[in-house]
Design brief:
single chain; about 425 residues; alpha/beta; Nucleotidyltransferase, domain 5; Helix Hairpins; 3 domains; 19 helices; about 60% helix
Length: about 425
C-alpha cells in the first residue's frame, strides 16, 4: 500500500471528536470521515465525567470498527486542561493512538462563519469543532499538557522553597537583633557583609558566643577570622573588622542565659536556609532536564530576551501551557492578574488603582520577576520603568514594575504566537 493510500485508509478509520468545554459541563460530538454523527453527549467537567466521555468514545470506536481518534477542544483558559490531559494520556485510549488538540477559539470562530444561519448552542459548537478536525484544518501541535504539568510541579515547588527561605530569613532577623542589635539595623551601605546570610556572617553570628568576644578580640585576630571564613574574598577585611567591633560595642547586652539559646536558634536558621538553597539547586537541575522535553522553540523564544534565564522562562512556560489558549495579550494579562481596577468618581480619577490579582499568582510572580530583570538589560524597558516611576509619589517601584510587567506580557505573547526570537532591532523567526 502506497503512503498516500495508507494515510487515506487511516483517515477513513478515524473518529473525529469535538468537545465544547465550560467550567462545569463538557459537550461532545463525534463524526466519522464522511461527516456522519456517531456520538452526542454531555458530561460534568470532573473526573467521573471524563471517565464517562472516555468510555463513550471507546465504545463508539469499537462499534464502528474505527482504529484512530482525533480529539479537538477549544482552549478555554484552564478549564480545558484536565480533560485534555486525561484523554491524551489515558492508557485505555492509547491503543487508538489519540491526538488531542487544544484549538485557538478565534480559529474555531472563523471556521464557524462558514456555517450560514446556524444557531449557537453547545451541541452545535461541539459539532463545529469536530467538523473542523474532520476537514483537516488543525495546524497546531498535539496537546503536551502532561509535560507542562510536570514542569509546573517543579517550578511551583521552586517558588515554594524560595518563599520558605524568605520566611526563615525574616524570622532569623529577630534573633539576630536580640544577639547583635547594631548589626541588624545597619544601613545597607554600612553593613560589613554584602550577604547578611552568607558564610562569613553565619560564622560571626554563631562561632562568637557573645558580643564581648568580638569587642575584646584584637583587630588582627578578627581580620584573620574574616579572611579564613571569607576565603580571602574581602577587599578590605580590616575595615570589616573595625565595623564589627564598633557594632558590637554599641549593641545592647543580654543576660548570659540567652547566649547559648540564641546561638542555637540562629545556627539552626542558617542551616535551614543552606539546606533549602541546596534543594533549589536540585530542583533547578530537574527543571532544566524537563524543559528540554517541551517544544524548544517556545523556550528559545523566551531565553532570547536579555535578562531571561532558564528558571524564569520555565516558570512562565509552565504556567501559560500553550499560548494558543489565549487569543490576545490582554487575555494573557488577565489570566495572570496583571489588570487594574478603575477608581473614578465624578471628575476624580485615582492614579493609584489597585491590581486585581485575581489571576494565576504563579504566572504573575514570574512575569513580574522577569520584568524586573529585563528592565536592567533592555534600555526600552528601563526607560519605561523610570517613566512610570516618576508619574506618582507613592508606591513608585511597585507601580512602575507592575506596569513594566504588563508591557512585558505583550512581548511574551508576540514572540510565542509568532514563533520568534527577540532582537533589539527586529524580531526574527526561529529556524
Amino acid at each position: 500500500m502506497k503512503g498516500g493510500d495508507l494515510m487515506k485508509n487511516n483517515i477513513l478509520k478515524t473518529l473525529f471528536v469535538g468537545i465544547d468545554v465550560s467550567s462545569k459541563i463538557n459537550v461532545l460530538c463525534a463524526l466519522d470521515f464522511q461527516g456522519n454523527k456517531l456520538l452526542n453527549l454531555e458530561a460534568l467537567n470532573n473526573q467521573p465525567g471524563a471517565e464517562s466521555i472516555l468510555n463513550s468514545i471507546i465504545k463508539c470506536l469499537d462499534s464502528n470498527s474505527l482504529k484512530y481518534v482525533v480529539i479537538a477542544l477549544e482552549s478555554t483558559s484552564f478549564y480545558s486542561t484536565h480533560i485534555a490531559n486525561f484523554l491524551s494520556s489515558n492508557e485505555l485510549l492509547l491503543a487508538y493512538q489519540p491526538l488531542v488538540y487544544c484549538l485557538n477559539p478565534k480559529t474555531v470562530a472563523n471556521y464557524r462563519k462558514s456555517f450560514v444561519d446556524m444557531d449557537k448552542t453547545d451541541p452545535l459548537d461541539a459539532y463545529i469543532i469536530a467538523d473542523f478536525a474532520r476537514c483537516g484544518r488543525i495546524s497546531s501541535k498535539p496537546w503536551r499538557g502532561a509535560q507542562f504539568l510536570a514542569l509546573q510541579r517543579l517550578t511551583r515547588h521552586r517558588l515554594h522553597l524560595i518563599e520558605n527561605i524568605t520566611r526563615e530569613k525574616a524570622y532569623m532577623v529577630s534573633n539576630i537583633y536580640l544577639k547583635f542589635s547594631e548589626l541588624a539595623v545597619l544601613d545597607k551601605e554600612d553593613r560589613p557583609f554584602s550577604n547578611t546570610y552568607g558564610v562569613t556572617a553565619s560564622a560571626i553570628l554563631t562561632e562568637y558566643l557573645s558580643l564581648d568576644d568580638i569587642t575584646y578580640s584584637s583587630v588582627e585576630d578578627l581580620v584573620e577570622f574574616i579572611r579564613k571564613k571569607g576565603k580571602n574574598r574581602f577587599s578590605d577585611p580590616e575595615n570589616t573588622a573595625k565595623i564589627l567591633k564598633k557594632a558590637a560595642r554599641d549593641s545592647y547586652r543580654l543576660d548570659k542565659i540567652l547566649y547559648e539559646p540564641l546561638n542555637v536558634a540562629i545556627a539552626s536558621s542558617f542551616n535551614l536556609v543552606k539546606a533549602l538553597e541546596g534543594e533549589i539547586k536540585t530542583v533547578d537541575k530537574a527543571i532544566e532536564k524537563t524543559i528540554k522535553g517541551i517544544n524548544p522553540n517556545e523556550y528559545q523564544s523566551l531565553i532570547s530576551i536579555p535578562g531571561i534565564g532558564s528558571v524564569l522562562a520555565s516558570g512562565i512556560l509552565s504556567e501559560i501551557g500553550t499560548i494558543t489558549s489565549f487569543d490576545s495579550n490582554d487575555a494573557l494579562a488577565k489570566y495572570a492578574g496583571l489588570t487594574w481596577r478603575v477608581t473614578q468618581s465624578g471628575n476624580y480619577s485615582s492614579d493609584t488603582t489597585r491590581m486585581t490579582k485575581t489571576g494565576n499568582k504563579y504566572l504573575r510572580y514570574y512575569l513580574i520577576e522577569a520584568a524586573n530583570s529585563v528592565k536592567n538589560h533592555i534600555p526600552e524597558y528601563k526607560e519605561y520603568y523610570y517613566k512610570k516611576y516618576g508619574e506618582v509619589t507613592t508606591h513608585q517601584h511597585k507601580r512602575a514594575l507592575a506596569l513594566t510587567s504588563r508591557k512585558f506580557v505583550r512581548l511574551v505573547f508576540g514572540l510565542l504566537t509568532k514563533n520568534q526570537i527577540y532582537s533589539s532591532h527586529k524580531v526574527g523567526e526561529i529556524n
